[in-house]
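hi! just following up on the protien thing from before. the input was this:
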Amino acid sequence: MFRPVSAELDFVAIEEAELARWREHDVFARTMRQREGGEPWVFYEGPPTANGKPGLHHVWARVYKDLFCRYQTMRGRVVARRAGWDTHGLPVEVQVEKQLGISGKKAIEEQVGIAEFNRLCRESVLSYVGEFERLTERIGYWTDLEHAYYTFHPSYVESVWWQLQQLFDRGLLYEDLKVVPYCPRCGTALSSHELGQPGVYTDESDESAFVRLPITDASAHDGLKGATHLAVWTTTPWTLLANVAVAVNPDITYAVVDGLVVAEALVTSVLGEDARVDALVAGRDLLGVHYQRPFSDVALPEGVDACVVVGADYVTTDDGTGLVHQAPAFGEVDRLVGRAHSLPTLNPVGPDGTFTGAVAWLEGRDVREANHDINDELERRGALIRRMDYTHSLPHCWRCGTVLIYWGKPSWYIATSQFKDQMIAENAAIDWHPAHIREGRMGEWLANNVDWALSRDRFWGTPLPIWRCEENHLTCVGSRAELSALAGRDLSDLDPHRPAIDEVVVPCRTCAAPARRVEPVIDAWFDSGAMPAAQVGYPHVAGSAEAMQLPAQLIAEAIDQTRGWFYSLLAVNTLVFDTAPYEHVLCLGHIVDENGKKMSKSQGNVIDPWEVLDTRGADALRWWMFSQGSPWTSTRASLGAIDASLRDTLATLWNTF
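and the predicted 3d structure came back as:
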């Protein structure tokens, strides 16, 4: 007997009835049991960050993943597709800050407290997980929600600790003072792959400055040919407060114009068509020349050679003056030049991106907002050649939108650059769709690999499992059981998050002195990259060695994940397990509006997936997505296009039925 068919066409009602039947008869679980003992086909679910309601792009990814998993199941394969949730990090913290009506680390610590703030973060992610689960069921995406992994679960955190311990024991996890991209609002560094996310770089206008610096020891150098001043150009006048050197290229020819030293090739662009060159000086003849720095507010350490011209091959005549001011606290290249020439590092900027009391007349001022006043002061002193507005592409915090600064601070790093060649080799064997990603977007990213800036000076994240004593000895812990043995008390039920973990003091393994955990948590991208092992609690959970499936036959996410999850998976598993974690990758294009523009709530061009599901049904949406051509191309979405898909295909099939 067939069920009676209503004469009224209502796809939403039909789908909801079918979903109810699936729930009643536990259909998904039954299909899994049918395949027990079959050949595995391994799929990894890329964990969405549970910091907001799911959007149309989440449906886009899920329907394609569902397509491949269902197909392999129909072929008799065992597809243990486990759901997962990315629950740590700045995305969650920023969302909770908005809910509380506060902003910044200081407000969190003073007005809320770490314990309460992290409780609210946990509560927030669980509420959004519920939203994702509801959408997942409604669109018919078969995935194991009952046994989903959460990156904040203790077993997951412990597995991440163990993986970090493997790196620490091999000398691949280290601390160093480097200049890092830094968000002054969030109060933390960001990694290179976070800067690789779409939309991070946008154009900003700053008031740049051409500055003259008086030479103080011209008589000691025979080759200066009447030079009395050095000309430097900077797009960040605020960094002049930390100047300790000027870099020139020894192989560039410099001109002396009315006593001012400028690269010969740049005389006209800096000084105008009427500038007359009095003499030419070889760059190497400028080395060792001393000058008066533009600001002396920050004291130089005694006994160091600073305010000196040094050689650097990176200096060019592409723009500027051909002489580059050096502030090792605010540029990674400057830091390396400073290290090579034993230069001091001056840092009058605090973690909130404002000047400290070391510069009394600018204390408390945001560094970028102070540029104009700094140029005014240079002009008052007669040191300003000229100023001009300069538009350049600057990185922004990918979560709060604040313009980043480059700021010197101690951070923890993973030595991924030591494995660059291996990651490139692993990538060459991966089947990418589209194929050009292998050598293009992904290959180029790997070729320029830098060490992973791992630590985050925040609250809601996997705590860095390193304890330090006053003698600076380090102890890295890989589990709560190991921590219990060190502490001499049972910590098996300890919440492995701040602030509880911060209160655990252990004897140093080297000298037995009290050791306390270093403060940072880790980059949440490491959490997601650790998922093949961490989702099963490897190696601490019984049976996890057998349950861990590495590599996956397929992963599928949006194309921007080449510098997100695709990279973190490859980096973590290459370093820890000496293998690529996936064999095939489907890179999905983006969903844009009907005019080809990025969907944005502020622009009012977002399509709420529930608007489609509640009025047209999931099949209309799924079929429209499948029928748009290659999945890696950007797709223009509109309700009209979805209606056409429903009318031309689903309604036609219904009529034949």
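The mean pLDDT is 93.
The chain is about 35% helix and 20% strand.
cheers
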